[in-house]
Amino acid sequence: AMPAAGADLIEVGMPFSDPSADGPVIQLAARRGLKAGASLPGVLKMIAAFREQDQETPIILMGYLNPVEAYGHARFCADAAKAGVDGLILVDLPPEEADILEQPAQDAGLDIIRLVAPTTSDERLRYVLSHASGFVYYVSITGITGTRTASAEALQEALPRLRAATDLPVAIGFGIRTPEQAATAAGIADGAVVASALLSTLADTLDADGKATDQTLPRVLNQIKDLAAAVRAGEKKAG
């Protein structure tokens, strides 16, 4: 349903009890998931079921290292690839310690997507991106997810520095909430990542027990359609 609504790539969160880089919306979503019994094996099973219908849309697992450590690095990478995962974003895995996962990920054919921020120095940027694959995730603000938004001017200033350091596509996230912001990000970079805004809409449609209602899927998909249309317009405007 999400690809049909216009999503080019799907980012799936791995359930974790302490998502320290995330704002309140994603923290609450993680809490709801864990309360409902979500687990890393369960997430992989869900992705495998999705792959029975869709073999094309890229899927990225995003989360924290602790569940991967508990699962086992090599086993996790092998099982993730078998389920149909294309890449990993582990927000608390610095490149200095990434050797524990780089070889298992490479053996399984998984990209490791790196995050860089406005505060990343030029020297640090070169080092981080020398270990990157897939695409670069530009954290457009200093802070947690879904709380603030970077200005178009700040994004325009940041992108040339990133382009000079890598040939990989750049997606902008952390703070993209509206179609207008998504259009701006897509016009400047190669993509826009939206999570908190979609989860806010989802949360608004749940019943008192935290379960989906007949409004949940239509409202989220309509929001994706609006975001996707804005991204296409932003890309077209940028030429």
TrEMBL record:
Pathway assigned to this chain's UniProt record: Amino-acid biosynthesis; L-tryptophan biosynthesis; L-tryptophan from chorismate: step 5/5
Pfam families: Trp_syntA
Catalyzed reaction equations: (1S,2R)-1-C-(indol-3-yl)glycerol 3-phosphate + L-serine = D-glyceraldehyde 3-phosphate + L-tryptophan + H2O
Catalytic activity, EC: 4.2.1.20
Top-level division of the source organism's lineage: Bacteria
Gene Ontology annotations for the cellular component aspect, listed alphabetically: cytosol
Keywords assigned by UniProt, alphabetized: Amino-acid biosynthesis, Aromatic amino acid biosynthesis, Lyase, Tryptophan biosynthesis
SUPFAM superfamilies named among the record's database cross-references: Ribulose-phoshate binding barrel (SSF51366)
Molecular function per GO: tryptophan synthase activity
Subunit structure: Tetramer of two alpha and two beta chains.
Protein name per UniProt: tryptophan synthase
Protein species of origin: Acetobacter cerevisiae
Lineage: Bacteria, Pseudomonadati, Pseudomonadota, Alphaproteobacteria, Acetobacterales
Gene from which this protein is expressed: trpA
